[in-house]
Write a structure and sequence with these properties.
4 strands, two-stranded antiparallel sheet, mainly alpha, single chain
């Protein structure tokens, strides 16, 4: 009797369980087609017109992935854009930097002797930063002489030879027409200080001194931007400081943000003027682009089978991408962050278009005549495509309106100047390298858009000699950063398409 009662209860429980499972299964099968998976939610709102612009996401996807990305990817392989001079040893100007990254993937590899520099790195991770600093001392051995400045360009050589032919055998003060061009040491120091002051009035970011002993050439292709493991309070403090203390605040007092990323909510941005919204969206777009790079080039494993891998196994991490951009996991902010990437892309695209005539006139000199000619042609080809885009970002309505606009422009510049200085507080060398490069690139784009020296380019009659003799000029550090930074945005948009396809196939 006991057995039959037990059996009866078992049968009832099984029946109920079966009915519940069937109902759940049936419910899933009946889910409306409009519903999306967690991965698809990242893209369901990423469409249509980009905020404060007339262009759509779909238009930019096609333009970038089919026309610009292949050209940029090819151009950035050349030596002129491959080597960038940077100072990775600056002290943080805002707080004591007590959280250096000890993970081996945080270190920046020297340009030469790659095999030798990595010996022993796996077992001595805590000394990575110190040992890597000494390794970088020999990092410029393979940097082309033309880039280092040891050789003069073809144009400079021709000028020198022509000058020599004209002066002939003059022997100093006794010759008629002698012009004494010597300067005192004090005058030279003064001129350098004046030049630095003039540059600071135009520059939107702090640029490393090219002549500093601590500035060294880094091979960007040998030090790709990817997830290094640098995270935690130190990394969060960087972005928290940028958003909370350097982004403009809405007029409505909302106190200090516990979740600094939430200040981009549309209701807050609507309270701000175009200039302040542009600043926030540019910073958010940069943050988004960096996050996409980390997700697309993520450390999947330290092992190659059972062996410790020399460089690790890297690849796209769809789950990490969803964590950072799924609207349900980001308080609805994920799609807005992705759209801000497109906003920043349009901003830098317009800067390239505006400076096109200036950039096309430059000599991209490394000393390798054949490659230099190829680079010049590739730059002109890229800029031709850039100029063909019909819906550029319109900066003409910004900072217009008299004294108040001038004050806002200076405040805008100072805010971004601070952001560039915060990059020296990043505790991971590789993160610091790419952070400084992309911020310098964005700062250069802002300089092009708002310096006023290239405003006549729209009429196709820009006076290049006048531009060169004005205060406006771009150093090699700025040019390399500008093109590489835009290349990072382009690769982010391409990576989005790859993530979209991966999620769809799952």
């Amino acid at each position: 009797m006991m057995w039959s009662r037990t059996s009866a209860w078992v049968i009832v429980i099984l029946a109920v369980s079966f009915h519940t499972c069937a109902a759940i299964w049936y419910g899933i099968k009946k889910t409306p087609k409009g519903d999306t998976t967690a991965g698809e939610r990242c893209f369901c709102q990423l469409k249509g017109v980009i905020d404060d612009c007339s262009c759509s996401v779909e238009t930019l996807d096609s333009f970038n992935n089919l026309r610009l990305y292949p050209r940029l990817n090819s151009l950035l392989q050349y030596d002129y854009f491959r080597y960038w001079k940077v100072n990775l040893n600056k002290e943080c100007p805002f707080w004591e930097d007590d959280s250096k990254c000890a993970i081996r993937y945080c270190s920046v590899k020297p340009c030469t002797d790659q095999e030798d520099s990595e010996n022993g790195s796996q077992g001595e991770e805590s000394d990575v930063r110190e040992s890597d600093a000494s390794n970088r001392a020999s990092s410029d051995k393979k940097v082309p002489e033309g880039i280092k400045g040891a050789s003069t360009s073809k144009i400079e050589k021709e000028k020198k030879e022509k000058s020599h032919m004209v002066t002939g055998h003059c022997d100093g003060e006794n010759d008629l027409g002698y012009l004494n061009t010597t300067l005192s040491k004090e005058s030279k120091v003064g001129f350098k200080r004046w030049a630095a002051h003039d540059d600071a009035q135009l520059n939107f970011c702090k640029i490393d001194d090219d002549s500093s002993e601590d500035s060294e050439y880094v091979d960007l292709l040998l030090n790709p931007e990817r997830y290094t493991g640098y995270a935690g309070p130190s990394a969060h403090r960087i972005w928290r400081t940028i958003y909370q203390e350097n982004c403009f605040k809405p007029s409505r007092a909302i106190g200090r943000y516990t979740d600094f990323s939430s200040i981009g909510a549309n209701d807050f941005l609507k309270e701000m003027c175009l200039e302040k919204r542009t600043f926030y969206r540019a910073i958010s777009g940069l943050h988004t682009s960096i996050n996409i790079h980390l997700c697309a080039n993520y450390l999947l494993s330290d092992k190659n089978g059972f062996e410790m891998s020399k460089d690790g196994q890297w690849g796209p991490n769809v789950q990490e991408f969803q964590t950072r951009f799924d609207p349900e996991l980001t308080g609805g902010e994920g799609p807005h962050r992705l759209k801000n990437l497109y906003f920043l892309y349009l901003l830098e695209l317009k800067a390239l278009a505006k400076a096109a005539a200036y950039l096309e006139s430059l000599e991209y000199y490394t000393g390798n005549e054949s490659e230099d000619n190829d680079v010049s042609k590739a730059v002109k080809d890229l800029l031709t495509v850039v100029k063909s885009f019909p819906e550029h970002f319109d900066e003409s309505s910004m900072f217009s309106g008299g004294q108040q606009a001038t004050k806002l422009k200076e405040e805008f510049r100072q805010h971004f100047w601070n952001v560039s200085r915060i990059m020296d507080c990043v505790g991971c060398d590789k993160c610091r390298l790419w952070g400084k490069l992309q911020v310098t690139g964005l700062g250069t784009a802002l300089k092009i858009l708002f310096s006023g020296n290239l405003d006549s380019e729209g009429n196709q009659n820009i006076d290049l000699p006048a531009v060169r003799h004005s205060k406006f000029q771009l150093s090699r550090i700025e040019i390399v950063a500008l093109i590489n930074a835009f290349g990072r945005l382009s690769s982010s948009i391409m990576a989005l398409e790859n993530f979209r396809q991966s999620i769809t196939r799952r």
